[in-house]
Amino acid sequence: MKKAPLKLVPIISEVFARLNVDIVGPLPESDNRNKYLLTAMCLSSKYPDAIPLADVKSTSIIDALIQVFSILGLPRELQMDLGTNFTSELTETFLEKFGIKEVHSSVHRTQSNAVERFHRTIKCLLRVLCYQSGEN
Question: In CA terms, which of 15, 18, 83, 88 is 20 to 30 Å from 94?
Answer without folding.
Answer: 15
